[in-house]
Amino acid sequence: MCLLSPAFARPMFAALMLAATFAAESDAIAAGPPDFRSAEEAAFLADNDTAMSKMMDGMSIKPTGDVDRDFAAAMIPHHQGAIDMAQAELRYGHNEKLRRIAQEIVVEQQQEIAAMRLALGQPLPPSAPAPDQLHAMPCSSTASTPCASPSNDRSTTRESK
């Protein structure tokens, strides 16, 4: 994967722009919420502040002497931070273009995390649905997660209407 290829540069640029935007918002949170801030916006900003803090902590690595491992050790939490911020956009955002970009960030950053782990011979974590997708999971008696209630299930089929 070439670092200057459009396939790599576009999601990286988007993730960096999101990180810079949310870093500025984190400063606004620390200054105290203005009176006009909605509960939804406050929750969004709190989620992003948490994601940024977790990402920055995770990127603070102790060098091992192995450049490849150190690179991956810093980049994996960076990519996970972009995923966490994009998921906050999906939870609270209303602009369909930004929501689409956020979906792309989630998918592309997960793929890059998997590629870095595989390149280093690390095991991949078990597959799991995104937190925003749990409501759309089909209900089965063998499911390891609770089934969605009919009132919260957005994936209603024609047969069940």
TrEMBL record:
<dbReference type="Pfam" id="PF03713">
    <property type="entry name" value="DUF305"/>
</dbReference>
<keyword id="KW-0732">Signal</keyword>
<dbReference type="InterPro" id="IPR012347">
    <property type="entry name" value="Ferritin-like"/>
</dbReference>
<feature type="domain" description="DUF305">
    <location>
        <begin position="48"/>
        <end position="118"/>
    </location>
</feature>
<feature type="region of interest" description="Disordered">
    <location>
        <begin position="123"/>
        <end position="161"/>
    </location>
</feature>
<feature type="compositionally biased region" description="Low complexity">
    <location>
        <begin position="138"/>
        <end position="151"/>
    </location>
</feature>
<feature type="signal peptide">
    <location>
        <begin position="1"/>
        <end position="30"/>
    </location>
</feature>
<dbReference type="InterPro" id="IPR005183">
    <property type="entry name" value="DUF305_CopM-like"/>
</dbReference>
<protein>
    <submittedName>
        <fullName>DUF305 domain-containing protein</fullName>
    </submittedName>
</protein>
